[in-house]
Design the sequence.
């Protein structure tokens, strides 16, 4: 029974808890036991909160038995990426420099989940300060893909994705600064949403006005993503983007009802000159066939695809932000920091103030051009990644191999489709659409109009229901 509980989605668990069919204590213990059994294999946790979680589960169970009002996530276990503050639970940012850091308050998104009754069971792995697309750090080592120990789990929310994929908690808090939710979601066959700016407040970001990073939901199903979004969304004074943003009924949007007749969808496999693996090309073609079968009108994005060649703009904005945040730490403690982070800081050393501002001008122009594309089309769909998860030994600065050919820039050639929408703020979700011959997941990305999360969830729910990938689970040997 306990193993079966770990496979249930949050939307089912919340109903069963409310009608006394599932015990929050039994559920939390099952999740913790599984997490502790699989941690030596997967290495997806930095901290497991067993004692605290069981105390909270006992309190949640008493509330159910006493007939108290229950929140949206009452008794549901969740994990939090170790970049996001958790009151009383250490938050290391994946860094040796913060190995003993214990925040005195929750991030707003975490506080809201707890207010709705969710139970924190652990903090998941991240590369140091979330600064790359692979999940490894001097503090904890490498995190393995849920489907193959020989492959990377992606990053930077790699631990969150692995925990969800492996049934170590049905829902997880992740972050996305350039694809950090969607990349590991695609690698591990789960759902990762990067919502529009301000939909979920980001209470920790230092540059709130120029923000391109997001605190996000990570789940196994679209309905669970909607459930998390329902609990986490809404204005907060810490985030100027969030002020005045309403909270619609996301749960109703995630019902796979009706069809896509009357919807126009742009599609593109890759920006000009970028590679795509044969397995991804095949999976993407099958996904487009499903969308057509649902009634959508599909329009190929061709001439305008060059607007997504944003690597120089991205480097100027992102690496300069990191330099401002971490240069002083590097000057004092470089011997305790990730070599890949130090190398990225060095890349930003030649970016001037005017260079940065020109990149911000380019960001505004990109937003307007995407707005133009979506004025006449409801969505843009792309592969999330150009190939399934690379080998676990993949280095950020080493070439990426796709179908026997080597490409020199991992970021520009592996995930060219994720970064643009961090900069523009448009909602983008990755959900599983297929598997390659080796059994590694392949992800589809759906991009919607600004603040049109309701539409994105509905399309994602319809697509999810059109296939049977959720029937597959990783084969995890806990012997």
Sequence:
């Amino acid at each position: 029974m306990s193993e079966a509980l770990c496979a249930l989605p949050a939307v089912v668990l919340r109903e069963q808890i409310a009608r006394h069919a599932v015990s929050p204590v039994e559920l939390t213990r099952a999740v913790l036991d599984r997490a502790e059994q699989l941690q030596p294999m997967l290495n997806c946790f930095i901290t497991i909160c067993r004692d605290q979680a069981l105390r909270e589960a006992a309190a949640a169970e008493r509330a159910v038995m006493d007939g108290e009002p229950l929140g949206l996530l009452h008794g549901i276990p969740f994990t939090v990426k170790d970049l996001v503050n958790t009151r009383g639970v250490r938050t290391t940012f994946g860094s040796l420099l913060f190995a003993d850091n214990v925040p005195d308050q929750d991030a707003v998104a975490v506080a809201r989940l707890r207010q709705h009754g969710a139970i924190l069971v652990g903090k998941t792995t991240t590369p140091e300060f979330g600064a790359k697309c692979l999940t490894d750090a001097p503090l904890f080592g490498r995190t393995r893909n849920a489907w193959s120990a020989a492959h990377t789990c992606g990053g930077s929310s790699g631990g969150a994705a692995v925990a969800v994929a492996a049934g170590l908690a049905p829902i997880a808090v992740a972050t996305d600064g350039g694809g950090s939710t969607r990349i590991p979601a695609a690698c591990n066959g789960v759902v990762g949403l990067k919502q529009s700016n301000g939909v979920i407040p980001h209470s920790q970001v230092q540059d709130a006005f120029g923000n391109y990073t997001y605190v996000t939901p990570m789940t196994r199903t679209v309905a669970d993503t909607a459930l998390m979004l329902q609990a986490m969304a809404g204005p907060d004074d810490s985030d100027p983007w969030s002020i005045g943003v309403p909270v619609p009924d996301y749960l109703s949007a995630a019902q796979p009802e009706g069809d896509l007749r009357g919807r126009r969808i742009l599609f593109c496999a890759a920006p000009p000159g970028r590679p795509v693996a044969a397995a991804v090309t095949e999976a993407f073609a099958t996904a487009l066939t499903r969308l057509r079968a649902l009634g959508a009108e599909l329009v190929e994005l061709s001439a305008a695809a060059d607007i997504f060649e944003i690597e120089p703009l991205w480097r100027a904005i992102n690496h300069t932000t990191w330099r401002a945040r971490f240069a002083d730490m590097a000057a004092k403690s470089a011997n305790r920091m990730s070599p890949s982070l130090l190398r990225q800081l060095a890349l930003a050393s030649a970016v001037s103030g005017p260079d940065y501002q020109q990149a911000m001008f380019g960001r505004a122009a990109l937003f307007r051009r995407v707005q133009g594309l979506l004025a006449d089309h409801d969505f843009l769909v792309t592969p999330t990644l150009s190939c399934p998860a690379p080998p676990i030994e993949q280095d950020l600065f080493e070439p990426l191999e796709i179908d026997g050919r080597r490409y020199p820039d991992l970021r520009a050639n592996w995930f060219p489709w994720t970064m643009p929408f961090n900069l523009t703020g448009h909602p983008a979700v990755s959900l599983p659409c297929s598997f390659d011959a080796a059994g590694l997941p392949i992800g589809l990305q759906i991009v919607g109009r600004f603040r049109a999360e309701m539409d994105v969830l509905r399309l994602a729910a319809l697509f999810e229901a059109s296939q049977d990938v959720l029937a597959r689970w990783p084969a995890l040997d806990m012997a």
